[in-house]
Design brief:
homodimer; 431 residues; alpha+beta; L-amino peptidase D-ALA esterase/amidase; 2 domains; six-stranded mixed β-sheet; 33% helix; acyltransferase (chains A, B); autocatalytic cleavage (chains A, B)
Chain lengths: 431, 431
């Protein structure tokens, strides 16, 4: 049965992951903390400035937004990543420091400088991330004076505070960590936190994810694993098809685990890659499920495409189609909208070869309506989670994307509700 | 002022167009008619089968959907256009004859054959278009027996019936025609009808437009004018970013005007191109304004891009962005969402060079927030029609796209309301 094609390169490895608490502070030698600076609104204090550090030097890699409009914090962090390995992340919510010109760069550097001073590090050892409203200067006078305080609060139990401090319209913090046995009685750990991908209140949001690990990996291996894991996870989710000015994934590895060093090309290197993927994937799924006003979580699998590029184009186009997302929202097993999106995706397809499944039930066979009872298909799409498999029957390439429905509440939230809230803030002079 | 860049290649020619009644039957020698076959629902009779003919042989050109999933009628009409010049269009609403396999091809051919027989033409002289639900076989037994009846009804006043018969979720027929003086006391006419581009009830809709002209033009000139006019009009509108399986624009020219023949490369050839553009543009704007549950009509102008491709990418990405469309719906002058969409459009841009205007008011200057009072910008976006100009300040290429807001009602219509209606029909065994 075509719907059974396995798309996860890690699923066949029986890696004994154990889910553990602690997020970014689960791996040994990492600490975190957060304080409330009133960045978004000085009248409403909530955690909005987070700090994550490694006690010892770390190997660090990062992936940044591909948007050509890049926030000041992204520009500064990109430079620092180029210069060498950072071991601290200072991150705020409430202001994205995007479209802020030279003043924004100065503010992002000021945040790094204050953090470096508080921790006794070099400036380039600090990465800075911001998320929130764009086009407004940072209220930097409310931020830099608080950095020494958040540094003083750093603790191995500060993970949840940090996870909460980077939230914007997220309804809950996103935290995940695993322990992986490696070597005799030893293990390594990977942990992470993330915040929502939905383009959201107050102005536009950002996908941020900070990952830590105590595995002993080389810089090359970390980079390789990072690319693999990001491509398998964060690059496969879509809520509204937008990429933000601030999207950033950072991974810091400090080698403090007792597990032995992971050698290039070894089975352990593969285990490490899959461990990193596992953490990123869980965080990515949490982001999708917590998308703005989302009621459905849908896995779109394109199988047997001619090439990887064809599989990706078809899956992404279906996952982003407004009409497909509307039909998910209405619990309508509308394979017509799906095949139509495949048709304009740019993927090389033959209409008469396409089969479409809702979970295991075939809805479209060879481009034509199947004999499956519509009432049975409807049962599937009424579920909050289901899989759509599009079998192109043209080759051996596969791709999966995770998407959501499009709800009236999403539109309401991003239009009238949003505009009303912004208008109220403008009246008060808050933005 | 950058916002004043003129993007319409025809706007500088003072072509004395006179708007006239009659749509496709305004040009001399064309007739139209429609009948009600109960294609969508035999219990609810409404006009759903239209016929448009030229009394004399015509030169015909057509542009079809780029979607790789193509309706049977599109496949058959593409063949007929290749074989020579058609002079009749038979078109139905209520069923798109898409994803219907060999049976669909047979049905599309049967419609051409019945029309050819009724009119004494060759089969290849008939083009066939369908719009409506996909994945369901045509109720052909309710259609072909009625073709002789619609042929008998053909009249120079049948335009509005034909325009109504191709409507699906359109709220009104789309009709436009002009007369253009050419030669001593002479003129030529161009007229057209169209139906909605929104992906719509019952399953997915189609942009159909049928244009007629009595101008004396050569086949080459007609083709050239067709490409130009379609690119300036129908290719610049977007409601939900989808292209349908059935999109078709047909132009038929019968040379029955008294105006002299239009020579290649002459000023008259340019006038003809602009006349064709004018008719298509007015129909395109009607389509956008009548988009599903649309409350705003917005012109997105990208000016001073490095290349035409950059201008087009930026304009189309902004016009399709859910968040930008939500902000229009909420009357929010949110230039942040606009610059952000420009950033991920793939256009080559420099953030610090970008200016963004709402009508004549600058909202973003050099990538930063302008000094314009937000209350003044809000006044512009509260209007039902306004223009967003994005000046990339990087070159001399420009592109315009016409778009709409995204309303909660659109989502409601395409999800729950749609699904409920479909479910009810399934219960009745109608689909």
């Amino acid at each position: 049965m075509n719907a059974a094609v396995d798309l996860d390169p890690c699923s066949k490895k029986s890696v004994p992951f154990k889910s553990i608490d602690g997020g970014v502070t689960a791996p040994r030698g990492f600490r975190a903390a957060a304080v409330a600076c009133g960045i978004k609104n000085p009248e409403v204090l909530r955690l909005d400035l987070a700090l994550i550090t490694s006690d010892t030097p770390a190997i660090t890699d990062a992936v940044f937004t591909t948007n050509k409009v890049r926030a000041a914090c992204v520009r500064v962090s990109q430079q620092h990543v180029k210069l060498g390995d950072a071991r601290a992340i200072i991150a705020n919510s409430g202001n994205a420091n995007a479209c802020t010109g030279p003043q924004g760069i100065q503010d992002a550097k000021a945040m790094c400088k204050a953090t470096a001073e508080a921790l006794g590090l070099k400036m380039r050892e600090v990465l800075v991330c911001s998320t929130g409203i764009i086009g407004m200067n940072m209220p930097i006078q409310r931020i830099t004076p608080r950095v020494s305080e958040v540094a003083a609060k750093l603790s191995p139990t500060g993970n949840e505070d940090a996870a909460r401090a980077i939230m914007t319209s997220d309804t809950k913090p996103k935290i995940y960590a695993i322990e992986v046995p490696l070597g005799k009685g030893a293990s390594f750990r990977v942990g992470g936190i993330a915040k929502g991908a939905g383009m959201i209140c107050p102005n536009m949001a950002t996908m941020l994810s900070f990952i830590t690990t105590d595995a002993k990996v080389s810089r090359d291996e970390l980079k390789r694993a990072m690319r693999f894991a990001v491509d398998q996870s964060f690059n496969r989710i879509t809520i509204d098809g937008d990429t933000s000015t601030n999207d950033t994934v950072i991974v810091m590895s400090n080698g403090q685990a007792e597990a032995p060093a992971i050698k290039k090309g070894s089975p352990e290197a593969e285990i490490f890659r899959c461990a990193l993927q596992k953490v990123m994937m869980e965080l990515a799924k949490m982001i999708v499920s917590d998308g703005e006003r989302v009621t459905k979580f849908v896995e779109i699998r394109v199988v047997h495409a001619r090439t990887q590029a064809d599989a990706r184009k078809a899956a992404e186009t279906v996952a982003k189609s407004l009409l497909v997302k509307c039909s998910f929202n209405g619990s309508d097993p509308n394979w017509g909208r799906i095949i139509h999106a495949v048709g304009y995706s740019g993927a090389r397809i033959k209409e008469e070869l396409i089969d479409i499944y809702f979970n295991g039930l075939i809805a479209c066979k060879g481009g034509l309506t199947s004999k499956t009872a519509v009432s049975d298909l409807e049962k599937v799409v009424k579920e909050p989670r289901f899989t759509v498999t599009i079998d192109l029957n043209s080759g051996s390439a596969n791709h999966t994307v995770y998407t959501t429905d499009l709800s009236e509440a999403y539109v309401d939230f991003n239009s009238s509700e949003y505009a009303a809230a912004l208008h109220a803030k403008r009246q008060k002079g808050l933005v």
